[in-house]
Amino acid sequence: MSQKTVLLVYSGGLDTSICIPLMKQEYGYEKVVTVTVDVGQSPDDVKMAAEKAKIMGTEHYTVNALDEFVTDFCWQSLQANGEYQGYPMSTSIARPLIAKKAVEMAEKLGVTAFAHGCTGKGNDQYRIEFGIRSLMPQATIHAPVRERNMTRSWEIEYAQKNNVPIQQSLEKIWSIDENLWGRSIEGGRLEEPDFIPPEEIFQWTKSAENALNEGIVIDIQFQNGVPVAINGDKASPSQLVLKMNQLAGDNGVGRIDIMEDRMMGLKVRENYECPAASVYLKAHKALENLVLTRDEIRFKSIIDQEWSRMAYEGLWWDPLKEDLESFITHTQKRVTGNVKLKLYKGNITVLGRKSDWALYSEDLASFDTTTFDQRESTGSVKNFGLQARMYHQLLKQRV
Amino acid sequence: MSQKTVLLVYSGGLDTSICIPLMKQEYGYEKVVTVTVDVGQSPDDVKMAAEKAKIMGTEHYTVNALDEFVTDFCWQSLQANGEYQGYPMSTSIARPLIAKKAVEMAEKLGVTAFAHGCTGKGNDQYRIEFGIRSLMPQATIHAPVRERNMTRSWEIEYAQKNNVPIQQSLEKIWSIDENLWGRSIEGGRLEEPDFIPPEEIFQWTKSAENALNEGIVIDIQFQNGVPVAINGDKASPSQLVLKMNQLAGDNGVGRIDIMEDRMMGLKVRENYECPAASVYLKAHKALENLVLTRDEIRFKSIIDQEWSRMAYEGLWWDPLKEDLESFITHTQKRVTGNVKLKLYKGNITVLGRKSDWALYSEDLASFDTTTFDQRESTGSVKNFGLQARMYHQLLKQRV
Amino acid sequence: MSQKTVLLVYSGGLDTSICIPLMKQEYGYEKVVTVTVDVGQSPDDVKMAAEKAKIMGTEHYTVNALDEFVTDFCWQSLQANGEYQGYPMSTSIARPLIAKKAVEMAEKLGVTAFAHGCTGKGNDQYRIEFGIRSLMPQATIHAPVRERNMTRSWEIEYAQKNNVPIQQSLEKIWSIDENLWGRSIEGGRLEEPDFIPPEEIFQWTKSAENALNEGIVIDIQFQNGVPVAINGDKASPSQLVLKMNQLAGDNGVGRIDIMEDRMMGLKVRENYECPAASVYLKAHKALENLVLTRDEIRFKSIIDQEWSRMAYEGLWWDPLKEDLESFITHTQKRVTGNVKLKLYKGNITVLGRKSDWALYSEDLASFDTTTFDQRESTGSVKNFGLQARMYHQLLKQRV
Amino acid sequence: MSQKTVLLVYSGGLDTSICIPLMKQEYGYEKVVTVTVDVGQSPDDVKMAAEKAKIMGTEHYTVNALDEFVTDFCWQSLQANGEYQGYPMSTSIARPLIAKKAVEMAEKLGVTAFAHGCTGKGNDQYRIEFGIRSLMPQATIHAPVRERNMTRSWEIEYAQKNNVPIQQSLEKIWSIDENLWGRSIEGGRLEEPDFIPPEEIFQWTKSAENALNEGIVIDIQFQNGVPVAINGDKASPSQLVLKMNQLAGDNGVGRIDIMEDRMMGLKVRENYECPAASVYLKAHKALENLVLTRDEIRFKSIIDQEWSRMAYEGLWWDPLKEDLESFITHTQKRVTGNVKLKLYKGNITVLGRKSDWALYSEDLASFDTTTFDQRESTGSVKNFGLQARMYHQLLKQRV
Questions:
Q1: DSSP C211
Q2: Which domain holds residue B298?
């Protein structure tokens, strides 16, 4: 494809839609290819994007990446107990995949120019551009919203002038992002730290008050740190997430309300719905705590924190992230077993966990054992904190 | 007091009760002083201990340490977001205080010999002995249960022979520890990772199912990282905890069920009820996330983890713990403000937070701002992850 | 002073000298105030800056900040064992002080506009601007070299057109930065990882080959983690550094040659001469290892690494840096004592250390002691690594 | 072999020699098998051990483990920049190998009982016993010196009574441990923090004063983080270490004098000679700093510290250590290249480093480049430390 073609990462929203005429009028491209990556957003949105693209005459591709998203991004994050300031990073981890699918399409089409609709204030510009540049170092990337310091009113005016269909965009009050791992709702008063979010913003979860009156007990089977079955039923990765989103959402599980530090230093209140992610993360941790050593649990939390920072920032192909994953992968070999939980009106309660790799020994743990001679602890207790106690002796001498 | 006197840290239970005759018969002491430190266990237990002591003829002291426990131990732990593997360390942080009050009493009485009833398998022996030895380096410490490798059946037999009152001890199925910050229930099948704990073990919390049908909204006021008022009502430290234990417990909040790694390497399942601690910890974190910088939040979690390990191990007077607290105290100067939460059927939901120290700026955060020129982000995005991208260029050259 | 005045942070070099006419011609200022902060660079450079300023007609101030630099910056860094990738951060820690003195002068003169000569590629722009903005949030800052993407040839041409004296600048082959804590030499082939630096770039240190034939033994007295005397002679902070630069430099001590990662991701080879810093850092660490506990030494290295990252980036007034310093200050209370070293042909050899706070006990350490009953270690050794061994038992069962 | 046989880990020294008669007289064994593992100690010592064993009539085995030691232990440690408080852990990392070879021999002979001569005060008892128990969970282990709280005088008397040859032991003033990775000298006044060690304790290194007058320049070739050639000459692992011990020792390189915290809390001064280890560690770090990203360098230092703690404690087969090694191994894939150093009178000076994986780009690094538009840094600098600056604004409002 000629140099005059640009691949637009396309969501169908206002920001990306105006990029279509803009790429021709202002950036000099002859042809715009639009790519929408399906990572679990509303099917209506995927369809709407394709329709808009058709209206505006781009060469449009919809890429189904559901299972790839779960296998290579959600499960990876799960193994790292991936969370940033209380948030399972649903939006963050979809961005690198979108970049990856865009690059794959560009390679197929022989295109090296990209455009995206991210603003200059947020995190996504970093995630998308890092992804594209890592996978295609020679790429040219345009970020028109940022480069032209656009405002929403300017965008609307431009859209109207250029026959860009934006009906739905105008009605939107909130800014929403969705994928299998979660749903974020931002904008307006929602960003204030002490505004109580209205019930209407939630679509995937019932409130605890309105959740089912009977909870459910579920059994999750893990293999190497990732779920493979719910209540004994094996399913594809994306089905395991979709089903759990339903089960947990119906029981009021998965709402998250936090103050979040964005990459550039803005502190913003954020609302998320992450039903499946919340359940799987809690179950995964419970199983890890059964099979990993105390030292592994302690040190892995440092690894997980660093991994999560990098995932949040979209540094998906950073060599340090790969190094961290080598550590994580080695630990997950033993994270195989079952976790039984109860979901009830917003609560996720672990009822039990079992594994062939459990570091639990009934003999050692039980109270009335004779396998352990208590006297042997004497020296260990006596020497415990020796240096700290020498410090206190010196302190007393000084006073 | 003569060298022939020993101070027994006394709970009134079987382990410590048999120590009374034992100290005279087997350790050669002429006099046993018993000290029970009230840190919020059941008032019946405190009273029962005094009665048993009277029956067995010791010089008995009950030390009320409720406010000291909250101010110097619970609040300290709260500022450090103190938790170990999911547990707010209620038992752990009471032990050093018990050691401290025992030493204070010993100093008053001129005693330097101590006895305690900890077994040789658990954590408490480390915590109690480290505390006593730090505060009184010349102390002699006896741990008869450990030193004689006692079993429960031996203890019961010995008690019966020596007229030690143990009626209640015989009836106990579970091993329970209580203080204002939480209640632990151990023993028997409860230690198995996949045994579902029976409802009867819980006394401070209703189940989510049986909790109040109407939740409550509460406002907690923090000053320097510690609560000072609930719904605007100031109260003493211990009252703030007692009241919150009631409010949260009635709403099904505070049950904790984890696998826990004890200090000597045993992995045991543990059940806790920590209603107040759970609420205050969640509120405190929410406020920190409003006022601390992103870097402070990230790094403080490493500090908090280390502090928690030390608190769990009872290293209360370790110089490193003091160093960590210097860091923590400096951060807490700004953790002043209010957090509004809803407690409902097991859920703690943060509804809002505000503070004069909030690093939230409406100007910077809002969407349609003109204070921020998006174009200025271009270079930052372009250079983001530069070395990681060089790595990929080299990788491509190698393939 | 009117809005039409700008305060130029002035070194006398080419970059800052051309800013003088530029501020008037291109930025519209009526008056330029130049400030040179003396942090221990060559006295000739300080004098030369004043002379050039006179020629170009600015209102010029030379600020002597030698003792403040050592007390508040070098000693602070010493207490943190401050080093970044092997470099004692001499240049880095002078920048915040320069910003601070500039702000102090601006406040005195009623000026709120600043200019500096940092390029857009290096670290100093971050350090200087963060300092000014932290201390004077309303400041306007100009960075002409960066903002106009200047090249050296453009600068020379502009200087010649505008009668800016640049004789010395033209002769310079290397880019040099000096202060009491060290001297950096950059530029040209020196930046290549495998170029052997020519002897001529070094001015403060003799080579090991040409160093004195007789080494010297020195005794450094520390109080609270900072030096107070050399060989028993007390001296002012700046004198303690100047004297040690001489003693160590004569003995070939203090040359550093590293690959350094700059803030924006460039990896550059750097050459430094830091004689005093090298000696004091080694002595300080030796004393810490005598008085701090094993756990403090381990954890403080994590604190020190974070502090050093922040100091390298010039985040001098970041609240996290203050938090870290609260930790550090608490540890340094005991870093009081003496360290004896030998300096000889490039080597710094610790010969001995002593302190009233030493956690060394002759009784405990000596071989033939009877104070320690070896049998008491049995249980501790037996239980050591218990979980790791359970892991191996499980492994064997799986195979 | 019958249950009546015990395998003694045998060095030929006093502690282990008396174990031979003791195992029969006091522990009831019929047969003692002695195993001496050659990890690079003095060949005389290895020979002497075999001779003594012959005299005392044990079934004796000498196991040559030189290359295994270097490949699996020294190189592993090198990749982790293994050092503990300044010490390359030579003694520490040989202990697990000794345990491993003992277990291999025991398996061959059908023996499950072990004895070793470690005291109850030191680190080696932990390392040896953890190794044996990890590799053979059913092992029985005897530690007679510890279990009987032996003193040196008792040992000598017992040896004389039982015809144990101890001539050399009596003459020894210092306690010495040697292997390819280093030599430790302990005991007597050497343990005092301020005693200047006499020249006579050193055997592998010349003093800086007496080192060769002409230094040498060497080139070390690394592949995947381990040396493969010196000056282009490939050699076996053990030869690479032996040769470097010679080269470096002759040039006065490798003496180490530190305060060291032993595992049980004793702080002891230690003297080491580690010529090869010192050179390889410095070269390895220099190469890492060329090829790893800034973030990898920063984070790997935390990994390395944890790995080193575990190696020091002999936790060689701990699963966390394996997890850490997965991380390390992934980073070392790029640590391939050459480092040129000069060794001269105690100094190791890096002269240059090169690698195909260097993250050094001449284009990006050079001064007068036009590939980089400095203006693009403006926004990044302006937003740098945003939250820290908001903190200062709030601070000013509060005052």
A1: S
A2: 179-354
Write the residue in B126, B362, B392 that is nearest to A137 by C-beta: B392
In angstroms, the CA B141 to CA B143 distance is 7
Of A264, A266, A319, the CB nearest to D293: A319
- pLDDT, tens digit (0-9, with 9 covering 90-100), for A340-380: 999 999 999 999 999 999 999 776 655 444 567 888 888 99
Q: Cα–Cα distance between C22 and C5 in angstroms, integer?
A: 13
HSE, CB side, 13 Å, CA atoms: give it for residue D254: 34
- Here the tokens at position A167 are 């009906």
Residue B369: Cβ-neighbour burial (10 angstroms; 0-12, 13-18, 19+): middle
B222 within domain boundaries: yes
Residues A131 and A144 in one domain: yes
Indicate if A368 belongs to the active site: no
pLDDT mean across residues, chain D: 94
Q: What span, in angstroms and rounded, lies between the C-alpha atoms of B106 and B110?
A: 6
Q: Which of C15, C38, C250, C304 is catalytic?
A: C15
Q: CA-to-CA distance for A356 and A361, rounded, in angstroms?
A: 11
Pair A70, A204 in one domain? no
Chain D residues with beta carbon closer than 8 angstroms to that of A267 = 387
- Residues of B within 8 A of A346 (CB-CB) are 344-347, 349
B257 domain-assigned: yes
Task: Name all chains with 3 or more CB-CB pairs below 8 Å to chain C.
Answer: A, B, D
Q: Which two tokens stand for residue D173?
A: 């003033």
List of chain A residues whose C-beta atoms are within 8 Å of the C-beta of residue C382: 376
Q: What is the pLDDT of residue D2?
A: 57
Which of C375, C382, C387 has the CB atom closest to A294's CB atom?
C387
Whole-number pLDDT of residue B391: 92
C-alpha radius of gyration, chain A, whole number: 25
B337 and B377 share one domain = no
Statement to judge: residues B304 and B332 lie in one domain: yes
DSSP state of A200: G
Is residue C167 pLDDT above 80, yes or no?
Answer: no
Q: Which amino acid is at C354?
A: K
- Specify whether C192 is located in the same domain as C171: no
**Alpha carbon distance D140, D3 (integer Å):** 11
Pick D173 or B18 by higher pLDDT. B18
The answer to whether C377 faces chain A, any CB pair under 8 Å, is: yes
**Which residues in chain D have their CB less than 8 angstroms from residue B261's CB?**
none
pLDDT digits (tens, 9 = 90+) for B151-208: 989 999 999 999 999 876 666 788 999 999 999 999 888 989 999 999 999 999 999 9
C110/C140 same-domain check: yes
Q: How many domains does chain D have?
A: 3
Mean of the per-residue pLDDT values of chain B: 94
Give the residue-averaged pLDDT of C180-188.
Answer: 94
Would you say the C-alpha torsion D118, D124, D126, D128 has a positive or negative sign? negative
Q: How far is C79 from chain D (nearest CA, A)?
A: 17
Question: Quick one: which of C387, C347, C328 has its CA closest to C76?
Answer: C328
Mark whether C135 and C168 lie in a shared domain. yes
Pairing label, strands B31-38, B59-64: parallel
**Is residue C296 less than 8 Å (CB to CB) from chain D?**
no
Could you write out the DSSP letters of every residue in B308-342? HHHHHTT-TT-HHHHHHHHHHHHHHTT--EEEEEE
Sequence-separated (6 or more) residues with CB below 8 Å from residue B336: B222, B223, B224, B225, B291, B355, B356, B357
Tokens (6 digits) for C131: 């300092």
Same domain, A200 and A347: yes
A71/chain D closest Cα distance in angstroms: 21
